[in-house]
């Protein structure tokens, strides 16, 4: 099932399918945000934003706004 | 070998233990300075190597890649691209960390493309067993065309092996480990044709970003038939990153094995407590409370000691140097000026001790994560928390700490509002005014009224920072992309060497940043207080002595009176009198005016100035004496006391809000790269202070 990173549930894993190259900063790409990489929502902050992710083994937090721009395919285990 | 001092550059992602390694290699043989023209720290140290060789180690700012996102990262690239730079390294050491090897290697492959001899350091090797990680080192060395040092910078293992590698740097391969130009062969072939003598990757870096590389300019390189638009360039950068990751992912699939069963996860356990939706905030505010409590408790004794030492030094110099202008300059201008800087060291050092413990442990990233949403409501970022806390010591290091806020608008607002937080220099002013106008009573049996007032002033500082941020957020029409990425590093025990050196550095930043300005302004103020334009000043002694003939004054009282009269007729006294009409509606007289003007060196100068004005002179530095004199001071026109509840509160609020710190304005100018923002800040804060003080005084009187 395809969705965007901001809609992932806690603990849900997904593969990055595509993202908006215009709005996603290069820094995030360099930290592991790219097609084919695994992303997991570790936890959302208390008011639902920002999101704490495990992206290809890198733990980082981004805001929902940016997470919306990343399309993923959820993997069911 | 021609040169026995090797130049070594340490390069690496943030949170890889690069600084720990630097501290291990250099110990206390390090100097922290600034890169010319910018306030980015330049850390250099020396290290002895086997065979009697020496190396200068340059610790470059942490960077995720060679694509610059910030001022700090620009510097790394500019240095590595410029062979003529005096810091250009003979050998580069890329520091990586065993758990984040995948991401850390991205930077390594880029450095390799620059064809500099490069050593790969894999740090935290002592954690491998615990985390169930095993590495195939020979395979990695072959594929990455380098030599690897497995080290633990905390347990200082592997350091000697690394030093051996550094000495034998000439044996390192300078070949790139992948061919990045495959991402667009035509384009890169064209480049190669036009600039056959330049490295392809170097040309690419110059083209793809806005950094300054001297003789090679982006415009010249882009000026050809096959140049690309910015959009196409970003696409290519993306492709390049993908290519590098493919290489790394494939390599690590074979060379790195993780036994998941063995990996114990401290991270998730701690995260669930520290970022809990209620518990997380409770813990954060408890820690904050503890920090402020300790800053006050622990600093009081050293501060008293410093105060007394400088006072006695001043007296000693005064008595032992031949009397005259030079004596006065040293004992009344320079020594108190330096003392006024040194007195803040304990508070600043203790606060930064805590901040650096929180940063080292990885906890600070969690605070940023917790607070971001709330802070954003006010136009700030989660990353504004650290500057706002640091601001309670001194705004200068605090403003420098805003540098990791990616969003320019959020960063600017943080810079503009941070000086509202109650910095250490306001405390002496608050202390004396509170003692003067707030009764030393307890309410409800335990709450000390004076303590409560001080706490209210602190809260007020924070509140005003938040309120102004909200206003600025509405007013500033700045288009800047919302951009927020923060790494959530592993939790670690803080490493005492890193913490210690960090505290030392931050304190030095204050002493040399603010110190220079405070001391020089103190000297200027001394001159302005010691000289006057009129005959009244020159003949002060005669005038007062004649006036006081029929009063039976002691010699000491007479001297005090003369000093006071001199001050009134000095340049600074004249300034005070000139601004009196402006500050009268706030409940102040020209004497307080002098105090306010003098406060531009640093706010706490107010107290010393008041002491001189009320002719307590140098005879008795006791606070009580100043307080008594101030209490007895009456308005010459109305005959009512000057320091009433109304004027006192008005003055407290004026000091809470006004921008009275030259050093802060200077650093804001540096960080925002224009005079516009410090001027706006000065006008906004001081204007607000004036209005609030005016309203409060008119209302309360």
TrEMBL record, chain A:
One of the Pfam families matching this protein, by short name: FeoA
SMART domains cross-referenced by the UniProt entry: FeoA
UniProt KW keywords: Iron
Gene3D superfamilies membership: 2.30.30.90
GO molecular function: transition metal ion binding
Keyword Metal-binding among UniProt keywords: no
Keyword Iron in record: yes
Residues of the Ferrous iron transporter FeoA-like domain: 3-74
PANTHER family membership: FE(2+) TRANSPORT PROTEIN A
Protein name: Ferrous iron transport protein A
Source species of the chain: Flavobacterium piscinae
Automatic annotation (TrEMBL), chain B:
Lipid bilayer topology: Multi-pass membrane protein
Keywords: Cell membrane, GTP-binding, Ion transport, Iron, Iron transport, Magnesium, Membrane, Metal-binding, Nucleotide-binding, Transmembrane, Transmembrane helix, Transport
PANTHER family from the UniProt entry: FE(2+) TRANSPORTER FEOB, FERROUS IRON TRANSPORT PROTEIN B
Binding site for GTP: 12-19, 37-41, 59-62, 123-126
Gene this protein is translated from: feoB
UniProt superkingdom: Bacteria
Originating species: Flavobacterium piscinae
Residues annotated as binding Mg(2+): 23, 26-27
Main location: membrane
Family: Belongs to the TRAFAC class TrmE-Era-EngA-EngB-Septin-like GTPase superfamily. FeoB GTPase (TC 9.A.8) family.
Claim: Nucleotide-binding is one of the keywords in the record: yes
Transmembrane intervals: 278-296, 334-358, 378-400, 412-438, 450-472, 510-529, 642-668, 680-700
UniProt-recorded name of the protein: Ferrous iron transport protein B
One annotated Gene Ontology cellular component of this protein: plasma membrane
């Amino acid at each position: 099932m395809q969705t965007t990173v901001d809609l992932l549930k806690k603990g849900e894993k997904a593969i990055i399918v595509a993202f908006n190259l215009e709005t996603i900063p290069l820094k995030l790409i360099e930290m592991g945000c790219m097609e084919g990489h695994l992303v997991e929502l570790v936890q959302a902050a208390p008011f639902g934003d920002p999101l704490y992710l495990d992206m290809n083994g890198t733990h980082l937090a981004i805001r929902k706004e940016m997470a919306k721009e990343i399309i993923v395919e959820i993997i069911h285990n | 070998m021609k040169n026995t001092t090797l130049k070594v550059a340490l390069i690496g992602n943030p949170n890889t233990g690069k600084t720990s390694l630097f501290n291990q290699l250099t110990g206390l043989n390090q100097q922290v300075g600034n890169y010319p023209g910018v306030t980015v720290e330049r850390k250099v140290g020396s290290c002895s190597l086997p065979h009697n060789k020496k190396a200068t180690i340059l610790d470059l700012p942490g960077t995720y890649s060679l694509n610059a996102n910030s001022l700090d990262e620009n510097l790394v690239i500019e240095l590595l691209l410029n062979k003529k730079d005096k810091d250009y390294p003979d050998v580069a050491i890329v520091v990586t960390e065993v758990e984040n090897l995948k991401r850390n290697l991205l930077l390594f492959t880029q450095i390799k493309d620059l064809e500099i001899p490069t050593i790969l350091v894999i740090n935290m090797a002592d954690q491998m067993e615990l985390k169930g990680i095993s590495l195939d080192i020979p395979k990695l060395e072959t594929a990455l065309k380098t030599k690897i040092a497995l080290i633990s910078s905390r347990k200082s293992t592997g350091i000697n092996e690394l030093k051996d590698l550094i000495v034998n740097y000439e044996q390192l391969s300078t070949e790139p480990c992948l061919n990045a130009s495959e991402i667009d062969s035509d384009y890169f072939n064209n480049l190669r044709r036009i600039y056959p003598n330049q490295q392809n990757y170097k040309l690419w870096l110059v083209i793809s970003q806005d950094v300054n590389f001297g003789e090679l300019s982006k415009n010249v390189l882009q000026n050809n038939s096959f140049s690309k638009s910015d959009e196409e360039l970003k696409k290519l950068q993306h492709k390049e990153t993908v290519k590098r990751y493919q290489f790394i992912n494939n390599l690590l699939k074979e060379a790195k094995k993780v036994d998941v069963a063995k990996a114990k996860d401290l991270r998730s356990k701690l995260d669930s407590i520290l970022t809990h939706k209620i518990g997380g905030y409770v813990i954060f505010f408890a820690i904050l409370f503890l920090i402020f409590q300790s800053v006050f408790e622990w600093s009081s004794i050293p501060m008293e000691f410093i105060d007394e030492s400088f006072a006695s030094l001043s007296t000693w110099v005064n008595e032992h140097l031949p009397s005259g202008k030079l004596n006065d300059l040293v004992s009344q201008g320079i020594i108190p000026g330096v003392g006024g800087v040194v007195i803040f060291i304990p508070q600043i050092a203790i606060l930064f001790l805590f901040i650096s413990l929180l940063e080292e442990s990885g906890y600070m990233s969690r605070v940023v994560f917790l607070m971001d949403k709330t802070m954003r409501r006010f136009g700030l970022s989660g990353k504004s928390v650290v500057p706002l806390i640091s601001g309670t010591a001194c705004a200068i290091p605090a403003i420098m700490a805003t540098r990791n806020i990616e969003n320019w608008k959020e960063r600017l607002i943080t810079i503009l509002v941070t000086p509202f937080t109650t910095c250490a220099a306001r405390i002496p002013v608050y202390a004396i005014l509170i003692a003067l106008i707030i009764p030393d009573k307890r309410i409800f049996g335990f709450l000390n009224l004076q303590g409560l007032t001080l706490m209210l002033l602190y809260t007020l500082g924070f509140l005003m920072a938040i309120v102004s941020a909200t206003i600025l957020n509405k007013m500033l029409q700045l288009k800047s992309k919302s951009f927020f990425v923060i790494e959530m590093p592993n939790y670690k025990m803080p490493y005492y060497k890193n913490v210690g050196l960090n505290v030392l550095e931050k304190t030095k930043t204050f002493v040399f940043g603010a110190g220079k300005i405070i001391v020089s302004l103190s000297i200027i103020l001394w001159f302005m207080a010691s000289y006057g334009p009129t005959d009244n000043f020159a003949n002060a002694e005669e005038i007062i002595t004649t006036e006081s003939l029929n009063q039976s004054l002691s010699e000491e009282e007479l001297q005090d009176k003369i000093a006071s009269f001199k001050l009134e007729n000095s340049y600074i006294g004249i300034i005070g009198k000139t601004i009196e009409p402006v500050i009268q509606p706030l409940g102040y007289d020209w004497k307080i005016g002098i105090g306010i003007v003098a406060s531009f060196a640093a706010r706490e100068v107010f107290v010393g100035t008041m002491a001189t004005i009320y002719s307590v002179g140098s005879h008795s530095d006791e606070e009580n004496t100043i307080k008594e004199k101030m209490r007895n001071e009456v308005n010459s026109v109305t005959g009512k006391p000057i320091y009433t509840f109304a004027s006192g509160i008005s003055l407290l609020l004026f000091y809470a809000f006004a921008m009275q710190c030259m050093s802060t304005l200077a650093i804001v100018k540096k960080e925002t790269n224009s005079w516009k923002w410090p001027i706006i800040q000065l006008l906004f804060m001081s204007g607000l202070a004036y209005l609030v003080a005016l309203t409060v005084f008119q209302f309360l009187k």
